[in-house]
Amino acid sequence: MIENRNRMVREMLDQIQHETLRHGPNFNQKDIRDKMKEQATRMQKIIHSMLELPNTILAEDESFLCNFNCYAYALGLWEDERTMKLVQNHLKKTGKHLVNSFFIKKLILKKIIKFQYSPELDNLIIYLNHEKKVKHVGIIKEINPIIVESKWGEYPVMQHTIWDVPLSYGSDIIFYTLPPFDKIESEIGNIILD
Fold first, then answer.
1. Peptide bond before 179: cis, by omega within 30 degrees of 0?
2. What is the chain's pLDDT, residue by residue, as a tens digit (194 residues)?
3. Cβ distance 88 to 68 under 8 Å?
């Protein structure tokens, strides 16, 4: 029963996210920003009412509605102005996020982020789909129960329990250590130079 309810909520979150994303990520238009804030609040209310879970929007200011994703947030890139400029310039030039699921896979393959058998504070939690492709990343902020902080697409940063995410983010999770910032920054530099 609870499993069916969780799946239903996750499917609803997917639907809400899809509705907003089809409008495009043009954050200079006030109506789009307002719609996204409204949808994020709607997602939060669904989770609160159906699951009674501590899912909250951490930041509602417009800087958190800019063009960075869950990967950049989880790796702490959004806190470094110079790195965020590089990431955002790449997005403007190519239309693609520089820090994405392929970047996470690269960090794993190079052993820059290391596998953890059990979660610890400030570990990365990586969500995988049924094909074992990386779909979403968050940061573990509490252990018992596990509370995750993550950026949901173009929405604000959310704090949630492990499975209070859209179904499209996957049904498998793995934990990794968060590497020192300079190692991540170095990998971004290598990509830009390639």
1. no
2. 445 555 666 666 666 666 555 555 544 456 656 666 666 666 666 655 554 444 555 555 555 555 678 888 899 887 777 777 777 777 778 877 778 889 899 999 999 999 999 999 999 999 999 899 999 999 999 998 888 999 887 677 888 888 888 888 888 999 999 988 888 888 877 776 55
3. yes
| Contact of 82 with 184, CB cutoff 8 Å | no
Region class of 150: left (phi > 0), else alpha (psi between -120 and 50), else beta: beta
48-55 long-range Cβ contacts below 8 angstroms, 24+ apart? 50/5, 50/8, 50/9, 51/5, 51/6, 51/9, 51/164, 53/160, 53/161, 53/164, 54/147, 54/159, 54/160, 54/161, 55/158, 55/159, 55/160, 55/161, 55/164
Neighbouring-strand partners of residue 108? none
Token pair recorded at residue 38: 């409204």
The tokens 């996204």 sit on which residue?
A: 36
Q: How far apart are CA 97 and CA 87, in angstroms?
A: 7
